[in-house]
Each structure stands twice: as C-alpha cells, then as structure tokens.
Amino acid sequence: MARRIAELLARDGMILCRAILSAERLMKWKSAIDTRYEELEVARRNSDTATIPRLVGTRERFVPTASSFTIGAVDSGTGVSELLNSVATGVAGVWIRNLLGSRLLCNLDQSWVRRQYAPSRYPPLHAPHGWHQDGALKFDFVSHSRDQLPRNAMLNMVTCWISLDSCGLDAPGLELVTERPGGLLAPSELRVESVQARFASENFWRPSVGPGDALLFRGDILHRTHVLPEMTRDRTSIELRFFSAASIPERLQSDRFIPFA
C-alpha cells in the first residue's frame, strides 16, 4: 500500500522514499544534531541570546519560533557532501533530476535542521509550522496583490525532507495536500479554514515516516507540521532545497549553493 501511494503521489509533485540514509550516517547526523540542540536549549532556558550565534556560527541562522537552524550549524563540508550523495544515488536523486534537470545545486542557506517538539515540551517561542509553500521562499507578498503576482513568484525547486526519527503517530510529522493548488497562494489563502474549504478531505495526507525516510515535493505543494496534543515524542528532521544550476532564482542569488552529487 505504501509503495502504491508513493507511486501515485510522485505524479502529483511528491514522493515518499524509504530509508535513503544508512544506519551509520543516520546516527552520525543525529548525534551531532542532538548535541547542538542540547546546547541551544540551555541557552534558551537561560534567555542567553548572546550565546546562540556562537553555537550556530556567524554565517548560520537560528529561528526560535521554529526551533530550526541552517544545516551549516552542524556541518557544511564533508558531512553535507555525503548526505547529498545519499540522496543522489537512489530513487530520490532520479526523481529530483526528472523535475529539475541534470545540473543541480543545493541551497545551503535554505537547508535546515528542524526539531518539532511534543506539545507538552515546547521551548520558549516555539510553534509548529502552519500551511505554506516552499516555493514562496523570499517572495515579497507585501509589494504585490494576489491578482498581480509575477510569473516567477513560484520557485521551481524541490524540497527533500528527511526525518531522523519515527514520526507521524506519536511524534510530529508532516501533513501535505496531494492536490496541487496551481500556483502561489497568498497568506490569506493559507489560513486553516481557507485550506480546508479549498481541498477535499481525501486530499490531506499525513504519512507515517521512519528514521532515514525522505519526503520529496515540489515548491508549490502545500504542507504544514502535523502535530496532535497527545503526541509525546519529539521529531528531528533535515530539509534540503534543490534548484536547477541553469536558472537560480533572482531573489536567491545571494545565497550559498553547492553542487548536487
């Protein structure tokens, strides 16, 4: 059943790929990330905002509302290259290239490590992600009305979301809309009630994901954090953002990119 669903969803701009990370690589990343979060959680409990830039690095970012930091806060060298190779050499790599072409880049400034906590364990300022589209990255909604969005408003990109834990049942996972919306949605269209009214109930998908599994989806796919009050475990994930080397979006030109293996 899971394989049949994955094959169906691949035609709609998303696919679930099982176990793209080896146990060894998974534990290596999880250990390094857990150490960084332990340090950050101490700083957050103590309201020690001055320590956070030192922990993540001066070129990296930490977003307390999402409990997320850019991937370079853990590794921006050999580890990332090995991670990209894991994605590139299997079904995931084939799927990305079919969408974006053979010459690909990973955007380091838009690739993140994220932790979604069980509701009873939220640190200061933390909140789950609401409905959004990754293809809206850095788009200036304030300067445009819904009826005057430029043709390049929606980025041509792929997100590779890798869970380092089992999630979707007793730990927060992802909820995705399997019907593509046909373009960039304005913030007013991303309210919970608006999304529920726009799409039929059977188009909402909350997959159960295992450690090392990856969800890949195009930039227009609507998604959010799936979290329930009764969930008791935390979930850590890595997000990689891929673009065609032939057409880097203008609004991302200042970001750091590295070749996709």
Written description of the protein model:
It is a single chain. The chain is an alpha+beta fold. The protein has a single domain (2-259), classed as Jelly Rolls. The chain has helices spanning 2-10, 23-45, 52-56, 78-88, 91-100, 192-198; strands at 14-17, 62-63, 68-70, 104-107, 112-116, 158-163, 173-177, 204-205, 214-218, 223-226, 235-244, 257-259. Strands 1, 2, 3, 4, 5, 6, 9, 11 and 12 form a 9-stranded antiparallel beta sheet that branches. A hairpin with a 4-residue loop joins β2 (62-63) and β3. The mean pLDDT is 92.
Give a summary of the structure in a few sentences.
This protein is of the alpha+beta class. It has a single domain (2-259), classed as Jelly Rolls, CATH 2.60.120.620.
Total helices: the number is 6
Q: List how many beta strands DSSP finds.
A: 12
Domains counted in the coordinates: how many?
A: 1
CATH H-level superfamily? q2cbj1_9rhob like domain
Indicate the CATH class. Mainly Beta
Label this structure with key terms.
alpha+beta, nine-stranded antiparallel beta sheet, globular, 6 helices, three-stranded antiparallel beta sheet, 20% strand, Jelly Rolls, 261 residues
Present the secondary structure layout.
Blueprint: H1 2-10, E1 14-17, H2 23-45, H3 52-56, E2 62-63, E3 68-70, H4 78-88, H5 91-100, E4 104-107, E5 112-116, E6 158-163, E7 173-177, H6 192-198, E8 204-205, E9 214-218, E10 223-226, E11 235-244, E12 257-259
Antiparallel strand pairs: 1-9, 2-3, 3-5, 4-11, 4-12, 5-11, 6-9, 6-11, 7-8, 7-10
